Amino acid sequence: MPPEATAAIRAPFGERLAAARSTRGSLCVGIDPHPGLLDAWGLEDSPAGLERFSLTVLEAVGPVAAALKPQVALYERHGARGLAVLETLLARAADAGVLTIADAKRGDIGSTMQAYAEAWLGEGRPLAADAVTLNPYLGFESLRPALDLAAATGRGVFVLALTSNPEGRSVQHVGGDASVARSIARAAAAENAGPGPGQVGLVIGATVGDAAQRLGLDLPSLNGPVLAPGVGAQGAGRRELEAAFGAALPFVLPTSSRAVLAAGPDTAALRAEAERTRDGLA
Ligand SMILES: O=C(O)c1cc(=O)[nH]c(=O)n1[C@@H]1O[C@H](COP(=O)(O)O)[C@@H](O)[C@H]1O
């Protein structure tokens, strides 16, 4: 057994997320250090600017969010030094008891997927977060190494089902009752068959309207969390979340990046904006 799959040293992700939501409320804040935001904060578009931005968000928003979701592309564009900043952010968040979801949207054939799983979920790996986003385009079962490693290490995954962008429909909605999105949701639910809240979540954008109901996704039987990006900059708010999820809203973790981040760099203003967003969606 590889070192990444040693016995879990933490409670299962589903339980840890539920605990964070009950104490800090149900908002995930994305850390997306776009060059324009760095500029608006008076920071350079450089690894140093990235680090200042990331640690400020952690300090200001960590205590009032269920989780933070760094978008890894914004770190990758700075190369090795950008990824070093991401490592620092993930380590500091872990020290502060703040859950992290690495938004990496990984997916590949099984042998390569094993390496992605180890990179983002493996015990002792520098980029391991509490959870990672996964892309099931190569087939849900291609994600098996990540599903198994998450279960073994008390970490989680969020599998793309209905994404917030309009182009997603051309793949995810196809097939009516036998849509790709529905098959992904069913496969995720099968992974969460235990008694506690499961560690396999779905990504369903807050902007998708009634697509989840129309395509027959049975979210209450998922027994896992639903990450719902699209709040704020992409136009969704409380009304759109209700339209998208209805009675399944308690399982949903609304997610906002740019709209909250724009309130910085002042930490008090940033925290107040995160709280205002969170409370406005509750
Ligand atoms: O997986 C994601 O986080 C994600 C899925 C999706 O369907 N739509 C979506 O916008 N996202 C991510 O969520 C973030 C949204 O950012 P804002 O539009 O600034 O709130 C970006 O990092 C996206 O990559």
UniProtKB/TrEMBL annotation:
SMART domains documented for this protein: OMPdecase (SM00934)
MF term (GO), any: orotidine-5'-phosphate decarboxylase activity
Gene3D superfamilies recorded: Aldolase class I (3.20.20.70)
EC number(s) recorded for this UniProt protein: 4.1.1.23
Pathway assigned to this chain's UniProt record: Pyrimidine metabolism; UMP biosynthesis via de novo pathway; UMP from orotate: step 2/2
Enzyme class (EC, first level): lyase
Coiled-coil zones: none
Entry annotation: catalytic residues: K105
GO biological process, one term: 'de novo' UMP biosynthetic process
Keyword Lyase in annotation: yes
Pfam families: OMPdecase
Keyword Lyase assigned: yes
Key words, A-Z: Decarboxylase, Lyase, Pyrimidine biosynthesis
Reactions listed under catalytic activity: orotidine 5'-phosphate + H(+) = UMP + CO2
Residue ranges annotated for the Orotidine 5'-phosphate decarboxylase domain, each copy included: 26-273
NCBIfam families for the chain: pyrF_sub2
HAMAP family per the UniProt record, alphabetical: OMPdecase_type2
Family, similarity comment: Belongs to the OMP decarboxylase family. Type 2 subfamily.
Designated name of the protein: Orotidine 5'-phosphate decarboxylase
Species this chain originates from: Arthrobacter pityocampae
Higher taxonomy: Bacteria, Bacillati, Actinomycetota, Actinomycetes, Micrococcales
Gene that this polypeptide is encoded by: pyrF
